[in-house]
Amino acid sequence: MNQVVAESNERADARLAWARQASGNPALMLVRASMDAGFRSYWRSAGHVGKPWIVMDSPPDKEDVGPWLRVRDHLERHGVRVPRVAAQDEHTGFVLMEDLGGPTYLQVITADNADALFDAAIGELLKLQALPCPVDLHAYDDELLARELALFADWFLDRHLGIQLSAAERAALAGANRFLVDAALAQPQVFVHRDFMPRNLMPVDAGPAVLDFQDAVQGPIAYDPISLFKDAFVSWPEAKVTEWLGRYHARALAAGLPVPALDRFRRDADLIGVQRHLKILGIFARLWHRDRKPRYLADAPRFIAYLDTVLPRYPELTELGVIIDRHVKPAMAARPFQPPA
């Protein structure tokens, strides 16, 4: 912890000096706006009269700001609402951007306004999925999909819960992973945000604005819709998820996107959702044990509930369900989430 404080104090001086120069306001002050699961942090201008700003701080030795800038420019050129940038310095990892001012979808969404907010989000998602994929955009290929799935066994089962699978169980898990990867690769491939969820959407004019897009890839068309409706931080009744997926599918068809027939699309959404749920369980465990960010793992039961809903529909995933029932649920019950000191 002391190392983090010392580093942040040194970094704070450089960040403030850069922001004052970039904004042309020598009296500008900064207060923390937010910090995400990676190494980026966001700072809001304060203590002065004038145009409000957000400064993104992406330490170059930890998280290259280049991909964020390149994807942002591509999205903006094609009409997706993203934060407008006033100044940038890839060498230092600082970006001065407009202050969109408001809360995110996650902070304002309720059962009463979810239909309207998701309708607007679908509209922005359709624009995003219609984008041409840049030639240097990474594909959500076999290697990346498999590497993400490995996070579940390596970090959630092994490191977090201390579960040692038998050889037969490891083989069964490998078979389930292969089934999920093949299903993802068989989907129509489009521009994929990879974290298109309420936390990364902000209700603004001509929006919603899309945030946190630097990990975009070319991948399965059902990935972003299921990310939106089966969120990492808020859950909805399965009947509503089914309804919203149907609304998305109808609008995607009307927009000329390459969605398959509705039944096949629902299957695609289920299976890529399972891939995402397993990956996120692994990532949340890694955030705790490697990065000392404990709060994310409090949402692990949400993903087990998502898996409980979907796994029984697919015989190919029966053994995965057995592993979760036999090992994961008892281990989680025996070790309730407690943030580290």
CATH class group of the largest domain: Alpha Beta
The fraction of residues in strands falls at 5-15%
Tell the overall outline.
globular
Sequence stretches where pLDDT stays below 50 over 5 or more residues: 1-7
**Range of helix content:** 40-55%
Order of helices and strands: HEEEHEEHHHHEEEEHHHHH
Just name the CATH architecture of the largest domain: Alpha-Beta Complex
Secondary structure tally: strands: 9
- Total count of domains: 2
For the biggest sheet, the summary is:
5 strands, antiparallel
- CATH H-tier superfamily of the largest domain: Aminoglycoside phosphotransferase (APH), C-terminal lobe
How are strands sequenced across the largest beta sheet?
1-2-3-5-4
From the N-terminal CA to the C-terminal CA, the straight-line distance is 11 Å
CATH fold call of the largest domain: Aminoglycoside 3'-phosphotransferase, Chain: A, domain 2
Instruction: Report Rg.
Output: 21 Å
Rounded average pLDDT = 92
Helix segment tally: 11
Question: How would you summarize what this structure contains?
Answer:
Helices cover 51% and strands 12% of the residues. The chain is α+β, with helices and mostly antiparallel strands and 341 residues long.
Folded structure, characterized:
This protein is of the alpha+beta class and 341 residues long. It has two domains: 2-98, 2-Layer Sandwich (Phosphorylase Kinase, domain 1); 105-334, Alpha-Beta Complex (Aminoglycoside 3'-phosphotransferase, Chain: A, domain 2), CATH 3.90.1200.10. The protein has eleven helices and nine strands. The protein has helices at residues 2-23, 66-77, 105-108, 114-129, 142-160, 167-186, 223-229, 238-254, 262-289, 300-310, 318-334; strands at 29-35, 41-46, 53-57, 85-89, 94-98, 189-192, 201-202, 209-210, 217-220. The strands form three sheets. Strands 1-2-3-5-4 form a five-stranded antiparallel sheet, with helices on one face. A two-stranded antiparallel sheet has the order 6-9. A hairpin with a 5-residue loop joins strand 1 (29-35) and strand 2. Helix 4 (114-129) runs antiparallel to helix 7 and helix 6 (167-186) packs across helix 9 (262-289). It is globular and about 65 Å long. Mean pLDDT is 92; it is low at 1-7.
